[in-house]
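## tool: complex_structure
## caller: assistant
## args:
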Amino acid sequence: MLSIITQNHIIEFAALVVSILYWSTLKKSKLRWLPFFLFFVLLVELAGSVLPRVYKMENAWLYNFSVPLEYIFYLYLFYLHGKRRLKRVSLIGITIILLISFFSFILTGVRDFNDKMLLSGQIFVIICCCLYIYQYFVELSDLPLIKDYFFWITSGLLLFNLGNLAYVFLLPLMRDQGFDEFGYTFRIINNSFLLLLYVSFIVAIIVLKKADKNVERIT
Amino acid sequence: MSKESLEYYLWGFMIALVVLGCFILVLSILYSRRQSRNRMEKLLMEQSFSQTLLQTQLEIQEQTLQHVSHELHDNLGQVASLIKINLNTITLDNKEKALERLEDTRELIRQLIADLKGLSVSLGGQRIAQLGLGKALEIDVQRLNKTGEFKAEFTQEGILPKLDGDKATILYRMAQECINNMVKHSLATKIRVDLKSKENLIILALTDNGVGFNIEEQLQSNGAGLKNLHNRAQLINASLTIDSTPGNGTRVNIQLIA
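## result:
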């Protein structure tokens, strides 16, 4: 049982717990779907861990369904927090991810992991992160950047996706060379940045709660 | 490409990307902090400007009321008394003398009306805006001459460029403050006010032939006059120079770009 639970599950569970604890703040904000998303991610990760270890089954098909949904959710967050240009880019990203996923299911099936869809998701999220930071400076917001809860999510997403981008980008070459056949290197990279990503979610929720408290105090 | 070099390539690429990400984030945070600090400084500057402007307007008002009080007592009151005496002493026995008295009285009434008009202008809240900086200074110089204690002169060269109303009020108050100091402390007999303009540049020079003073000593003492002048000059982005040595009079030069 203990070998099924990994560091990823613990940090994902921690983020879910924090989001449930602060639900009263989250439900009034643009992050109201975050606890459901975190619950979904935790379920997928647990299933992804149980399938090969307990039932000796492949789990790539599971990630072929969950990864596009995760990236669509991230881009939806950018859509909610963005102004005109960012909204447009996030909508284009969602459409492209959906199209790539649909065609790859038809052309290659669901058994092999679809890295093209992951790569396109990562590129669009990185673009949206940069556009969000640019938008902050263009808008001349009165709120300091570190007090903007979405900046923390943006930071986590930017570092997570930049960190993983190199691996996903070089994946075809690595497959040809037979490098990292058992995915050890991928796990090291992915797990480190996943930790960073969920910590950034937790910080964002706390920052949002603090801001909400200040508003309550003023009103 | 060998497996080893591929591994180096992968880690190198990944580290470069992550460092780039960190660089973007850190730079953004630093820039945001600098931006909010600048915004705060600007806000404080604006607050300080409005406070000084309000204080300046109050000081001008106070000075105007003082002037009105003097005018009512020393000038208008006396002219009105003269009119009353004239009218009381008119006798119809001597028609020619009576006509002469009436003519005198008419002249006094005309003077009274003119003085009243002058007073009503100086009482107006938007005096600088209505009269313009040059005219307001000229009136002040005329007032100095009326006292008979000074020989005051006002000159204006060039057409003044359009100056923001708040800046004009502060500049006018600075000139008033200098004139007040010359009247109170300089023991001067001559005072000059020269207003020049070259394109967008306004040069206001105030000179007296009084006893002068030691600028350093004055700045170190607790007197707020000079510090006030410097603060106000800073607020309207004007350059202020004061030349004075004991025994050699004082020259104050204020330069401002409209």
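## assistant note: The radius of gyration of chain A is 18 Å. The mean pLDDT of chain A is 89. Handing back to user.
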